[in-house]
Design brief:
With 278 residues, the protein is of the alpha/beta class. 23% of the residues lie in helices and 16% in strands. It has a 4-stranded parallel sheet, covered by helices on one side. A two-stranded parallel ribbon has the order 1-3.
Amino acid sequence: MPSPLRNMKKLKPLNISFILLIVFATTVSVHAQDKATETYEICVYGGSSAGVIAAYTAKKMGKTVILIEPGNRLGGLTSGGLGQTDIGNKYAVYGVSVDFYRRIGKAYTMDSHSCQRLVVDGRVKNEGNVQIGGFDAYPISYRSVIPKAAECKNLLVPVCLSASHIAYGSIRMEPAFMVLGQPSAVAASIAIDRKKTVQEIDFNQLKNKLKSNPYADNRIPDIRVDNEDTKIIVVKGSWSKGKRGGYGPTFLSDSTATKGEKSVRFTPVINKAGNYHI
């Protein structure tokens, strides 16, 4: 097996204060023939979709960052062409990842393939195939991407995170990796600025930064309106509620079986005036 460090000889010596995705916060030196040394605050090891988003976010937040991919491909399955085959819950994708998917028009869903085939009573059956969809967007704990403080204090791992096999069958999709890469980069930036470990940072600060600046460039955040938010909608008439084929956890559809005046009025909370696209 070729060494993952086979291309390192091409790099200058590096001083790295933080690695993400591996994301570190100690000084790391990579020695090469060139005597010059370059210093980076954040090193992202692994050019997967999560790695690319993490590096992109860290750079937008003003940090010096280097992205190291030991192989010959950058961007994971997302840049490899996989996209149209898996259309899932777009409601679960947010932040910088939304920017990307708006431009290519693709999203993903859960997908866990068979691990082996067995012959049972003369018939071939797949084992391990889990392709259950239709569930709502769900949160992923920050604790699942950081190790215990006693093990490592400057590392975030948004791809090989702590999860059960079934949970990882959904988390492992490219959009989820991208969504996890962004907060990992933000957490690394906070840790550097506050001179704290990744376990010690204020989670509320991380949460508020992601909410108030989801694109990492201070653009006005999206305003989402949803029929599940009963505080901002007024429904008149009879509507059917569906769960599959719409945007978000549920959606309202007009049933032709009922007549009369029907309307749904959304009144979103707009915190900042500006021009918005609908």
